[in-house]
Every structure is written in structure tokens, then in C-alpha cells.
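User: Predict the structure for this protein chain, please.
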Amino acid sequence: MWTSSRTHLRRLEAAWHQPAARSPHLPLVARYYDLVQHEPAYHRLPDQTWEDLNGDLLFNLLDATVSPVGQQCLYHRLRSPLTDEAPLHEFDTAANLLAQQSEVRGHALLALNQLTAHEAYYLTDLFSGEPLPTLPGARFAPLLVLGLLATLLGGFWLPVLWVGTLAFALTNAVFHFWQLQRITNCVRPLLQLGRLRRAGQALQRAALPLRPLQPLAAPLSRLRAIMWQVTFLQVQDNLLVLSLVKMLLLLDVLVYARCRVAVQQQAPAIRTVFEAVGYVDCALAVASFRQRHATCVPHFGPAADGIQLQAGYHPLVLGCVPNDLTLAGPGVLLTGSNMAGKTTFMRTLGVNALLAQTIATCPATAYRAPFCRVLTSLSLADSLPTGKSYYLVEAETMRQLLLACDAAPSSYLLLLDELFKGTNTQERIAANKAVLAYLQPRSWVVAATHDGELGALLQSYFVEYHFCETVTAEDWYFDYRLKAGPLTTRNAIRLLARLHYLAQVVAAAQTLSAMLATRAHASSAQATTPEEGGSVVDSIKGDEKLLG
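Assistant: Here is the predicted structure, written as C-alpha cells:
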């Protein structure tokens, strides 16, 4: 049904202001990122970190794009943090322009709306470096056409050759229909190339003051020759005259062969237009996100200033309580019970660092930090297919982080949740202390733990913060506020009582907990000289001195 451009624009504007939730085809959305992730870059977000930061959900929240091209470029942008302030400033300017000037935004929305077909996900095939598929037997097509023409013309002098003409005509017809479906499938991304070119032309005609659109004239002109060939493959006539000529002279096969060569030659031009169109769509999506959420523009400073987060919150957590943090010099050791907010806060910090270096937008009141690579270990699991236990997965993950920090010291933000919890308490504390003490001088580290002993062991490397809950006789609740210092209360067993555990189970747990606490207190109160004994912490520190 025909609708006016004004009505159509109103619908696009409404969708931009409040985009509907959609389920993207993530394997298709990731095609562009998968294609270019092996190219040199400052950082590519590893799969584990992407999962720990709920990357797919974060992408869905940000995805107010119009086209599949925009989706693919947004996904790539979110997983490819930058280390240069200039392109981030340009992107911020583009998002502000599209947010504040409705006329400019309208031109962009209408241009991108030409590129909404599902087949547009496959445009990346045209500049992947791999040629389009060849048609089996295509090298014989010129010979079959020459044979047909030769026997047709020769028949005027020797009519018996027209028998050969008939044979060639039948052969060409069979060959044509044998290749027809293959050509149709191969041409699908080429058909979207025409729409990509029209979208690029519309953005160029709108004269949007965006840097990626400025060099589009030459690439768009280079695509014109390919478009003529693709148009010829699409043309059909009602009288079937052209279709008959195409069939007998195998024109579709021959033109497709030329298209293959042209696409390979013009792959850089295709990619330039693809990325320019995707850039505008990404800026539109970020402008939409900014008008739906409280955000700030990040500021980048020297490493000596550390990381400063003010009123940072997680955009995926409804009603998330904002928190502040300054991370400079020592690392941060987080303590607190489960559900108190430790992991959510670490994810908040990671998301702010990631979005700052990808879309120049932070869900916070203020964010200032040096450029850094974010790596996490927040939600590991054992691997049944490879037969790896939980502890082995933990150990391998931490080894990779150690190697990364050795290779590029002072450039990583590490978010670590309860390291080595797949082993016993004594070895867990020892391994945690050794690993965290090694990492802290080489990176910015925020680590969460339930082992209170680590605070004393790492007091020269880390400052302690905690989250806590309040448990009363009638209720229990969390305030999700980050507080300075170590956790001084223990409410886990009281929480079991509030969850209506059996009274004898709660009583037994409380009795044993009190007994263990008394033993620990008595041990720490003993004589402090090495001959008289000492606390566990003092013993470990003494062993470290003996071992150098």
C-alpha cells in the first residue's frame, strides 16, 4: 500500500524514539565483526568478557538501528574498543547532530529505510576477500554460444549446419535452466548492493556533515558499472523475447561471470559505502539510547589519574542504584554476601569502560579514565564437551589474563569475581593472594571475594570496599550502596532463617559458626612472636619473608 513519505517518516521517528524489542539473528549480526576481527586493532573483546558483560542483551538495548548494515556495524563497534579520542569525539558529534536536528535525522531515517531486507545481512560477502561462487561448467558457456552463432550463420551457406544450431539451442536451454537457480542465489547480495548504493547516494545528497560520508562520491561511482550488470540479470519482459535471447545466448551466465570479476575489483569501494552507511545508522541508535537513558560523555586522561566513575549504573538493571568509585594506585577488593551487588557493580564498571571507548556514551553522571582494555572473569563454568572441570577453566582463564598483563602492562582493567572458588579454602586464599598481588602493579584490578582474610594479606596492594544487606526479624533487604572498608557483619545464616529453613538446621549452623569464630579469634590473640605462634595471616606473611 502506498504511503506518503511524511507518514512514513512519522512511523520511523516513532520507532526511533521508542524502538520495539526485536530478536536479532545474532549469527547474521556478527558476520561483519567475524569478517574483520582478525585485522589489526587496539582490542577485540573476547567472547568470555562479552558474555560476562551481558553483551548480547546490551546490544539489544542499544539496537535502534534501521538496517541490517547498521546492526552489523553496531555489533562490531561494541566489540572493538578504540584507543584514539578523535574518532570518539567525531562519533559523539554525529550522535548529537542526529539527536538535536530532526530534519537531518529524517533524511537519514528515510535513506536507511531502503536497506531493510533480510538479504542485506549478506552484503559482507561482497568484500570478504572471497570471490562469489563460480558456476559449474561456466567456462564452457562461451564455447556453447560461439557454436550456436557459428552454426546459425554457417547454415546460410550450408543448411545442414542448422541441425547443429538446433542441437546447440537445446544444449544451451538445458544449461541455462540448470544454472538459473544458482545464479538467483548468488545474485541475492548483489541485489542488496543496489539498495546500499541508493542509501549511500541519499545520505550524500542530504549533505550531512559527517566525516565518513565525505569520501563517498568516488566509491559510489565505481559501483555504477556493477549495478548495470545486476539490473540486466533482473530484467524480464512480458513477451519473453529477452528471456529467450538470454536463454539461447547464455547471457545470464556470461554477465554473472563479469559481475564476479567486478565485485572483486570493487570490494574496497563496497566496504567504504557499507561502513559509511553503517556509521550513520550506529549514530542514530546511540542518539536514541541517549534520549532514553541518563548518560554522559566520557573524558580520557593520563593513566596516573586512574579511573573515576560518578553515579554509574547498569542500563540493563531496572532501577539500578548508582555508585561512585575512584580507582587509582591500589586495586579494589570487594566483599559482601551474595545478591548484595558486587558482581552487578563490577559489570557496571566494565560496561561504562566499554561504552566509553566504543560509542562515547556512559550510563553515569561522569566518567574519566585512561584508555584500557577490559577483561573479565565473572561467570565461568565447567566444560562438558572438553571434559574440563570448573577449577581447570578458572586456572586457564587466569593464566591468559596473566600473560596479557605481562605483554601490555598498565593497559588492562580486570574485573574478577571469586577466583579459584573451585578448590579448597586454604589453597584458594593462597592462590588468590599470589595472583592478585602479581596483577595489581600491572593493571587496574577490581576483585570480589568472600574470603575476609584476603583483605589483610593484600592490604599493601588493595583497598577494601563492601556491599551489605540488612536482616531484621520481619524482613531483609539490600541497599546496593558501595561502602568503604571491609565487611564487618555476617548475615548469611540469619538470611537462611528468613527463608524458613528448618530451625534445627539454622541453630546448628549458628552454633558451628560461633565456634569457628571463637577459634579464629583465639588464634589471632595468641603471642605474636614466631616462636609462640600467630594468626594465619601472620604465618603466611612470615613464610613469604622467608621465601623472599
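The chain is about 55% helix and 10% strand.
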